[in-house]
Design a protein that fits this description.
The longest helix has 24 residues, at 88-111. The protein has helices at 28-38, 56-70, 88-111, 114-121, 129-141, 153-162; strands spanning 13-15, 23-27, 74-79, 145-148, 168-169, 179-182. The chain has a four-stranded parallel sheet, sandwiched between helices. Strands 1-6 form a two-stranded antiparallel ribbon. The protein has a single domain, classed as 5'-nuclease (Rossmann fold), CATH 3.40.50. Helices cover 44% and strands 13% of the residues. It is an alpha/beta fold. It has six helices and six strands; from the N terminus they run ββααβαααβαββ.
Length: 184
């Protein structure tokens, strides 16, 4: 769901080198949804393997994690558990938005408008249980810690930070050459 704290807490942009030797908590679902949204073909089709299985999430995990590991940044990926009951309405609302985006994607494809198709397709991404398990397995193969939260991943990340198990909690996933995180 996310908490809109940007108006309360100032953002502090830091350099990747500032995180060298530190352990960062990652809200796994946040990054996985980002990878599923942006790692796509020009027409908006997600990246897939030869059997037609979506692999955008795996590609994103591998390359972003490898980049951060190269900079001596340790990661702890925290996966959401059971959502709290009060999140039902938000989940249903998001599902409806994805269905509407899927219709817009198909319409744009029929018109041959690849720019609009890709834009609409980015809002159709979804995580399956298989994708979550594949992600955990890849991270474990890479030697990266995986934590299964009992409920919200954000809350678990914050708890790990409070207990000094991680240096900071990843708050945004904006990455460019050398600036990767805005931390709170």
């Amino acid at each position: 769901m996310g908490v809109q704290i940007s108006k309360i807490l100032p953002k502090k942009e830091i350099e990747i080198i500032d995180l060298s030797g530190k352990t960062i908590g990652v809200d796994a679902f946040l990054w996985l949804h980002q990878f599923l949204s942006i790692i796509r073909q020009p027409d908006g089709t997600p990246l897939k393997d030869s059997k037609g299985r979506i692999t955008s999430h795996l590609s994103g995990i591998f390359y972003r994690s490898a980049k951060l590991l190269e900079k001596n940044i340790k990661l702890v990926w925290v996966f959401d558990g059971k959502p709290p009951g009060f999140k039902e309405y938000t989940t249903e609302e998001r599902r409806n938005l994805k269905e509407e985006a899927h219709k817009k994607w198909k319409e744009a494809l029929e018109k041959g408008d690849l720019k609009e198709a890709r834009k609409a397709a980015q809002a159709t991404s979804f995580l399956t249980e298989d994708m979550i398990e594949q992600s955990k397995k890849l991270l474990e193969y890479m030697g990266i810690s995986v934590v299964q939260a009992p409920s919200e991943g954000e809350a678990q990340c914050s708890y790990l930070c409070e207990k000094n198990k991680v240096f900071r909690v990843e708050r945004t996933s904006q990455c460019n050459r050398e600036t990767c995180f805005m931390v709170v």
